[in-house]
Write a structure and sequence with these properties.
By secondary structure, the protein is mainly beta. It contains three helices and 13 strands; from the N terminus they run ββββββααββββαβββ. Strands 6, 7, 8, 9, 10, 11, 12 and 13 form an eight-stranded mixed beta sheet that branches. The protein has a three-stranded antiparallel beta sheet with strand order 3-4-5, with no helix packed on it. A two-stranded antiparallel ribbon has the order 1-2. The longest helix is centred in the last third of the chain and has 19 residues, at about 170-190. The radius of gyration is 22 Å and the shape is flat. It starts with 6 loop residues before the first strand and ends in a 7-residue tail after the last strand.
């Protein structure tokens, strides 16, 4: 079901109407590609990049059929008997947080007797990806954005049938989310060295923040009366997430 457009502002660059929905913060003019922060109406002063889509509907179907035909966990007739019911190309907004993250910790290793107290630091460098939508289910950790292939945002490079989503979080919110997610990742890594965390804190040394739109295909297919979903990277054609029907095998 489509969402009703609630508000509209004028593009400060070309004066065309810029539509946005409740919750969206950073919007892009579909006529000239100019990007604006809604709260201030000011031009977006961060690098706004675009990852190009390399797959049309026909090539994406080839990727789908290839995925369906591979892997022993899938039904043998999946590729032959499945029907693609929906294929939508969406340009999703992301923040890329380039940072060195250092997590200091103190904890107890309880797998020996007596337990041992350990402390130390995990330090790693990341191009951490934060999806700039609040209610979208997306396998962010399985998606490696090809940053080397990015170009300056150019609305003329986007297919007319594609949907472009605006950001619902700003730079500061993205940075805080990245910090929380990285700390969660480091806490997971610590499980091999300590069993109980006593103290833990994470600091980020920010190198750069990018705002970009990346092409993602959302596919729905029917198999034996049931609907399933695939999410495919429009840049590489790789399947990021795929629902697999149960197999009798």
């Amino acid at each position: 079901m489509s969402t009703i457009i609630a508000k509209e502002i004028g593009c400060s660059h070309c004066s065309a109407p810029v539509e946005f929905k409740p919750g969206e913060i950073v919007v892009t003019c579909k006529y000239c590609g100019f990007t604006t922060v809604i709260q201030t109406g000011q031009a977006f002063n961060f690098e706004h990049s675009l990852i190009l889509n390399n797959y049309d509907a026909a090539r994406i179907e080839n990727c789908i059929r290839s995925w369906m035909s591979s892997g022993f966990m899938k039904p043998g007739d999946l590729a032959k008997k499945s029907k693609i019911t929906e294929n939508a190309l969406v340009y999703l907004p992301f923040w890329v947080v380039s940072t060195v993250a250092a997590t200091k910790y103190k904890g107890i290793f309880e797998r020996v007797s007596p337990p041992v107290t350990k402390d130390g630091q995990i330090e790693k460098e990341y191009n951490w990806l934060v999806l700039a939508r609040k209610a979208t289910v997306f396998p962010t950790r399985e998606y490696t954005v090809p940053i080397a292939g990015k170009i300056p945002y150019d609305f003329r490079k986007i297919e007319g049938s594609a949907k472009v989503l605006n950001s619902e979080i700003n730079k500061d919110e993205a940075l805080e989310l990245a910090k929380q997610q990285i700390e969660h990742q480091h806490r997971f890594l610590l499980q091999r060295d300590i069993d109980r965390v006593i103290e833990l804190s994470t600091a980020l040394e920010l190198k750069q923040m990018l705002y970009l739109h990346a092409p993602v295909w959302f596919i729905k297919y029917e198999y034996k009366g049931n609907l399933y979903q695939l999410i495919i990277d429009g840049s590489s054609g790789s399947v990021l997430k795929g629902d697999i029907p149960p197999s009798r095998f």
